[in-house]
Amino acid sequence: MSRPVPTGPEGFTPTGTISSPTDRRRVVFATVVGTTVEWYDFFLYASAAGLVFGQLFFAPAGEGFAQILSFITVGISFLFRPLGAFLAGHLGDKYGRRLVLMLTLVLMGVATTLVGLLPTYQAIGIAAPILLIVLRILQGISAGGEWGGAVLMAVEHAPKTRRSLFGASPQLGVPLGLLLASGMLGLMAIIAPGDAFLEWGWRIPFLLSFVLILIGHYVRRRVEESPVFLELSERKEQTRMPIVQLFRKHALLVIIAAMVFAGNNAVGYMTTGGYIQRYATDPEGPVGLPTADVLGAVTISAVSWLVFTWIAGWAGDRLGRRNTYIIGWIAQLVGVVLLFPLVNTGSIGLLTLGLVVLTAGLGFTYGPQAALYAELFPASIRFSGVSISYAIGAILGGAFAPTIAQALVQSTGSTDAVTWYLAGMTLLGLIATLLLRDRSGIPLGPDHEELQARSPIYGAAKA
């Protein structure tokens, strides 16, 4: 039976806020913990793809091509993120945000744990890379469904004047996941250096996922459903075919929103996709730094990314989502230009500096994203809108960014082409941002669907 939706000062309001500080803290904590576990699993695979998977699962392809194949498996998962977004969007708009969050968390954790148990090519032949790809696809489906549910739980519970800050809580899961994944791999590189890391050390962080999934599941079970969805459910106003309605009325908006994320995601996947880790540690490459040192630098940059993402969430409520993004694109362009010149010095200190500078822009182009996306789409199709926009942006941006970077370096012998590629993606994100009106503070509840449905795209009809 549907739970009644109170409208008084002590309960939910049609704009999607709750008055209880305890409930708000619980929502923030649950979204941070859950997304951290999800992205730990997702980024752990990407980092291992840069460090060991080429040798363990694709060695017969030859050293250079084996690494490209390893990075391709990172990108393949992105092709299945829209499937996860479609499924989660449909379920989330019809049956609730909370259900989807539980399903995606379990799927990601099981897939990641099984990677840690997977035999290598030497043990079972071609079946090893095939099974690895299947498990990565399951990770992609989970990641495609996770984000939309997490950000809507945060934003739809938030006070109107603090949506960007509340929405930054699931965004913190990305740098926290990277921090945890890099930290665990770095720790294992110290505990089991050299051949021991290749033989068994890399598996331990994957097996740890089973414990983390139990923690995340416990935390998420204690969170109430989104007040916006509860109101939709009480009125029986869930859209019958939300995805059809989304593309019928808002297809252009989905593409522009996707390009906003693509500009951030392509640059972010230089570390979250494992490229910098591989490039900087390759003993045959121009840098050749120790694995533990590079993972330590990435871990430090994850901390700075966390800080800048939180600051950006705070700024999004004060400067507006659009203005915060514009500042972020400028900072990100500076970081892109400086990154490889600093990495190529061969100094671990300057490599760390380059990654930290880059995270300023990454944080400012990611922190306000949850609030920006939630305010773009009507309540009845919002889960579908934010999830599918995010998934398409991930394909356009991060899906094959490490593969493209690897291919550009191998074909040109220089990282200059990679810098131009990342700068181009940053400018694409800036242009997409400039095409959108700032809708900070727009009511999110179902009473205001007509207002929400008005196009936020400059040059498009407002009604």
Largest sheet: none
- The percent range for strand residues is under 5%
Structural class: mainly alpha
Uncertain residue ranges: 1-19
Helix content: over 70%
Please tell me how large the radius of gyration is.
Answer: 21 Å
Q: What string gives the helices and strands in order?
A: HHHHHHHHHHHHHHHHHHHHH
Report the oligomer.
single chain
Please count the beta strands (DSSP E, at least 2 residues each): 0
User: How many H/I helices?
Assistant: 21
Mean pLDDT equals 86
Shape: globular
Topology record:
Layout: H1 21-57, H2 63-79, H3 81-95, H4 97-117, H5 121-124, H6 127-157, H7 163-171, H8 173-191, H9 195-201, H10 203-221, H11 227-235, H12 242-268, H13 275-281, H14 291-319, H15 321-343, H16 348-364, H17 369-374, H18 382-396, H19 401-412, H20 416-434, H21 449-452
Q: How would you describe this protein?
A:
By secondary structure, the protein is mainly alpha-helical. It is 75% helix and 0% strand. It has 21 helices and no strands. The chain has helices spanning 21-57, 63-79, 81-95, 97-117, 121-124, 127-157, 163-171, 173-191, 195-201, 203-221, 227-235, 242-268, 275-281, 291-319, 321-343, 348-364, 369-374, 382-396, 401-412, 416-434, 449-452. Helix 3 packs antiparallel against helix 4 and helix 12 (242-268) packs parallel to helix 18 (382-396). The longest helix has 37 residues, at 21-57. The relative contact order is 0.15. The model is unreliable at 1-19 (pLDDT under 50).
